[in-house]
């Protein structure tokens, strides 16, 4: 093989390898980037605390206007086997900024424990002339059970908080626009190490909704229940009193009996002449 042909073969092999590696990188990047679900409605609101967090679903895009310095909260539900990826883009004003800024996206579980991000730019820095800043956080897989001390993610409600952590004070209050999306990948192995969680660690929240009663506690007034439909024998039921009342009543009866017996033993008897 001549040197010219050998060089051409080497160049062709290098070009093929570069093209394959670029294709693999593009495929992995597209697989990692969340995409909106078809037909999903866009959410145009955000909460200002954990209690008022706006509920969203995986694949549901979020677009909301806010001011620099505000804390923005969203919540979503997670099941065992899910791996969530939070991606956010903050559009910054092109004029009026006096310096750079540092942004942060954080995820908390229902017990307000901050969950670690295993990948992504969680606290990027935006230069003074930057028009956008991109934030990323890929969470650990949600487990079906965990040891109490481990802090591993469990099924339930999770909260996203987007905020700016460092910026010049004179830049507070400038208008921004936030785009956010939560992606999810579900693994069929929901019990990687055995065990099961009977119910979510924190049930899905619905701010403003008043619960009718405790879950699992029957309504005494409901028809057909054992306590609410006793018919003619309803008057035989003992009153729903605490044990303190029974002890008080029993003690009163015993005191009355002791008083009668004591009076009978100590009363003066007529003297017989």
TrEMBL record:
The name under which this protein is listed is Peptidase
* Residue spans crossing the bilayer: 245-265
Going by the UniProt record, its keywords in alphabetical order are: Membrane, Signal, Transmembrane, Transmembrane helix
Whether Transmembrane counts among this entry's keywords is yes
Which residues does UniProt assign to the signal peptide?
1-22
This chain's source organism reads Micromonospora sonneratiae
Q: Which domain of life is it from?
A: Bacteria
């Amino acid at each position: 093989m001549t040197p010219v042909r050998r060089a051409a073969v080497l160049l062709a092999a290098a070009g093929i390898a570069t093209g394959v590696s670029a294709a693999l990188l593009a495929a992995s990047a597209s697989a990692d980037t969340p995409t909106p679900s078809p037909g999903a409605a866009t959410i145009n609101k955000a909460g200002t605390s954990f209690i008022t967090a706006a509920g969203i679903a995986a694949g549901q895009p979020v677009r909301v206007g806010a001011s620099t310095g505000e804390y923005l909260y969203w919540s979503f539900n997670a099941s065992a086997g899910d791996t969530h990826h939070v991606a956010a883009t903050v559009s910054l004003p092109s004029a009026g900024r006096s310096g750079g800024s540092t942004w942060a996206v954080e995820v908390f579980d229902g017990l307000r424990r901050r969950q670690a991000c295993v990948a992504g730019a969680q606290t990027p820095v935006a230069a003074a002339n930057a028009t956008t800043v991109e934030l990323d956080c890929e969470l650990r897989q949600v487990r079906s059970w965990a040891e109490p001390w481990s802090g591993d993610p469990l099924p339930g409600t999770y909260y996203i908080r987007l905020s700016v952590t460092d910026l010049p004070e004179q830049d507070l209050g400038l208008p921004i626009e936030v785009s956010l999306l939560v992606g999810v990948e579900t693994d069929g192995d929901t019990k990687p190490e055995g065990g099961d969680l009977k119910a979510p660690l924190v049930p899905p929240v619905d701010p403003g909704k008043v619960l009718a009663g405790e879950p699992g506690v029957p309504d005494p007034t409901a028809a057909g229940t054992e306590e609410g439909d006793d018919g003619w024998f309803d008057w035989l039921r003992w009153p729903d009193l605490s044990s303190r009342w029974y002890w008080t009543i029993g003690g009163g009866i015993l005191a009355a009996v002791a008083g009668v017996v004591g009076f009978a033993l100590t009363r003066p008897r007529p003297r017989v002449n």
